[in-house]
Amino acid sequence: MATTTAPVKSRTQYKIKAHSVEACNCQHGCNCQFDGFPNEGFCEFIIGFLVEDGYVGDVNLRGLQAVIAGKYPNAIHEGNGHIVLFVDEKANQQKVDAFASVLSGQLGGMPWEALAGTIARLEGPLRRPIQIKIDKEHSSVHVDGAVELQLTPLKDPVTGKDKTVQIVYPEGGFFWDAGNIATSEHMHAEHGDFKLEWPAKFAAVAEVNWTNQP
Questions:
Q1: Do residues 76 and 32 touch, judged by C-beta distance below 8 A?
Q2: pLDDT category, 153, cuts 50, 70, 90?
Q3: Do residues 88 and 132 make contact, with C-beta atoms less than 8 angstroms apart?
């Protein structure tokens, strides 16, 4: 689903800082982080966002919770994605519309300006009760009747103790700059004909920062 990006001078300004909790069907290294292509040749994922601070124009988004579930038949940049967007039912319509305008790429800014053209089918925003818990490698995402994601730390194969792993992009990454890596204890999403389930795969917790300003 291609979207038209507004000219820079006419764009509503936004700046968002959020926690992200994600998991996908890749192995724990997630080849997408290094080579740009998923381990299994296709990409299926869940990402939960809890806005710590931010605005779109005069709309304050602090505290907003949203979840994206996605399926791509190949790498994300090769397109034909099926995306389902859930937004917390407690958020007012103004906040939902503002957040959706960012994720749709309409207002420009990375990564959403680039991702918009990769989506063939978009469902949402769908209002649901959402609970996102940020607790490092124990973080979780829950959407009533649709999404269940529970992270757990990686384990040292010799000692059995929790292992701390980070992926860092010193010059800045596409989605985030530094991610604490975990594994998915539970990972399930279902809505209509959309369904995915990938336990014991790559997962990460990170801070994301988005803006359409220089």
A1: yes
A2: very high
A3: no
Using CA atoms, how far apart are residues 125 and 108, in angstroms rounded to an integer? 19
Contacts with 38 (C-beta within 8 Å, 6 or more apart), sequence order: 24, 25, 26, 30, 31, 32, 75
* Residue extents of the structural domains in the chain: 12-211
Whole-model pTM?
0.93
- DSSP strand pairing (81-88 vs 119-128): parallel
Q: How many CB atoms lie within 10 A of CB 34?
A: 9
Average pLDDT, the chain: 93
